Every structure is written in structure tokens, then in C-alpha cells.
Amino acid sequence: MTVRERIHVVEDIRFQDHRSPAGHPERPERLRAVSRAIARDEGRIARIAPRMADPVEILRVHDRDHLAHVERAAARAPIHLDPDTYLSEASFAVASLAAGSTVEAARRVARGEARSALAAVRPPGHHAEADRAMGFCIFNNVAIAARALQQDEGLAKILILDWDVHHGNGTQHSFAADPSILYVSTHQFPHYPGTGNFAEVGTGKGEGATVNIPMPAGCGDSEYLGALQRILAPIACRFAPELILVSCGFDAHRDDPLASMEIGRNGYLAMTRLLRELAEELCGGRIVFVLEGGYAESGLIDGTTALLEAMLEETPPAPDRLIQAPSGSTLHMLVDRVAAAQSAHHPEIGTP
Ligand SMILES: [Zn+2]
Asked: What residue ranges of the chain have pLDDT lower than 70?
């Protein structure tokens, strides 16, 4: 691995074989946009070969019935698993390829064979529950990778940051009672899927290992960066993860048709710089970005370009150089409300 290859990428033309019904926002063209952005940095990135997930890996997160149901249903494709989530003929294989490629990216980073990684996969995963597909998601790629890191690579503590504009209900529920996986989510609220309010902090031994930052519509670069600086960063420092997984949707972009947030390219650049800095400080730079949503091609291109730029910079400047210091009352309200909901678990919230 050379210094230039700070990030390894896994992508595959076969991800486009998950074919959507006409007019569906989760369509193959999304990944073509991501691939175009990746191609601009060809020569500065390294590649990871995609692979199918082993059923054993999927079954650490999903019920056997769900796995069997998806396989049987795909044989009768085209078919819908819920009003939003469809299967085409190749979808079972493609969903397995998305999960397996995410595991592979995470494993390479855990073993030090890659410093960081981007898994440009589809279908997305964070809405998929243990027992069912949901919200365009079939298997929960990030949750499956987190379990693989623990059970195959011996990692103990993993941080999942979910900055997709939607709440990752499936990921939250997979680890609600598990203190070894810290799930932090920024998302538009109220919005689909309806979960992710402040008071959802985890259950039993997992109380405090779920941190929700539900944000009102209209938040942009400064609110997002401020939330990461003032809520995520202090929690992450205390938790001390061994690797950071990012549920990396680009649907909080201002052009996205499915949500009402206002992040632009500079926002994603600053947010990625902050995550890179956190990963370098806390876990030897080990961070894996996994594509979730993002339904405007311009948003996917902006997000992917900014992410790669921030990960490939020789010496990243301070994350907030591009963004005006958050001044509005929205950020203060968010920090106060998360701090109140988490007061028994995270007294560090809000400290600079
Ligand atoms: Zn989303």
C-alpha cells in the first residue's frame, strides 16, 4: 500500500443488475453517477475485489426465514417485498454481493491491508430489519460487516455513524441492546421511517450505545458539521472504537428529491475531514464508508467527489475552514436535546 492509496474502493458493474421498476428512485443510474466520480480519482485509489456474502455472515444479523424468503421471492421476480422494496431476477445475488463486498472492505481495513475503504454498493442496507426487507433495503450491509469484524477479525468496539438523511431503523434495532456497537445517526425528523427520536437511546446493557440526532428539515452544512463536532466527536472519543463504519447516504444533499436537507459539496468535504481526523486519532485511521441512499445524481457525484478529496488530501485542513461557524439556534437546540436524552450515559456531549 502506498501513501497515495489512502483509500480502497469496491464497486462492481453487477450492482446495476438489481433492476428497478420504472420511476423508482433507487435505480442503477445512481451507481453509474458514483462510478463516474470515482473514476476521476483512478490512479490515486486502490481496488478491492467484490465478493458474495456467505450465508453465515448474513445470518448473524438476519433470520433464516428472511434469507430464504428473499431467495424464493427473487425466483418469482419482478416482485415487491414491501411497497418500496422490489426484487428483480438478479436481486438476491446482487444483495448478497453488496453485503459480501461491504464485509470484504471492512475486513481489509481491519487487517491493515487497506487504510480506509469505500464500498460503493447497492441495494442499500440500513432499513433492513432482522426479519424483513424495508425501504429499498434487502440485507443490512453495515450491520453484517460490523458482526463480521467482531466475530471473524476479533474487533471489540465499533462505531457506526449513519449520516444518511433517513434513520437507520434496521441498524439501530440490530444493536439496540449491544454496548459494543455504538450507533450514532443524523437524520431528518419527522420523516421516513419514523424512528430515531431523541429518547431512543438503546435498551438494557445497550442504553447509551444508540445516539439519535433527529434534525428538522432545512439543516445544511453548518448544522451537520456542528452536530458531528459537538455530539459525535466527544462520544466517539470516550467510546474509543477500533474501527468506524459510516452508513454513507448522500440524500441529505440539497438536490435530493426524497428529503429536504441542504448539504452541499463543501459540507460533505468538511464532514469527511472530521471523520478522517477522528479515525486517525482514535483507531489508526481505520474507517469504511458504505453507500446507502442518495437519489439525485448531482448529490451522489458531489458527495463521492468530496469524500474522496477529503480522504486523499496530503494534509487535510481543519474541517470547519470551509463552513461558517454554526450560529443558529437549531444546532443549540439539537445539542441540548441530545444531551438531555443521553444525560445518564454521555455527560461529555456538547463539550468542545
Ligand atoms: Zn436515505
From this structure: 1-4, 321-322, 324-327, 351-352
Amino acid at 202: G
What are the structural domains, with CATH classification, of the chain?
7-341 (3.40.800.20)
pLDDT tens by residue, 85-139: 999 999 999 999 999 999 999 999 999 999 999 999 999 999 999 999 999 999 9
What span, in angstroms and rounded, lies between the C-alpha atoms of 271 and 240?
Answer: 19
Of 327, 306, 330, the residue nearest 217 (C-alpha): 330
- CA–chain centroid gap for 191, Å, is 18
The answer, as to whether pTM is greater than 0.85, is: yes
Question: In terms of Cα–Cα distance, which of 321, 313, 315, 318 is closest to 41?
Answer: 313
As a whole number of angstroms, the distance between CA 187 and CA 197 comes to 10
Q: CA-CA distance, 72 to 55, in Å (whole number)?
A: 15
Ligand 1 centre to CA of 303 (Å) is 13
* CB-based neighbours (< 5 A) of ligand 1, an ion: 164, 166, 249, 251, 293
Catalytic residue IDs? 127
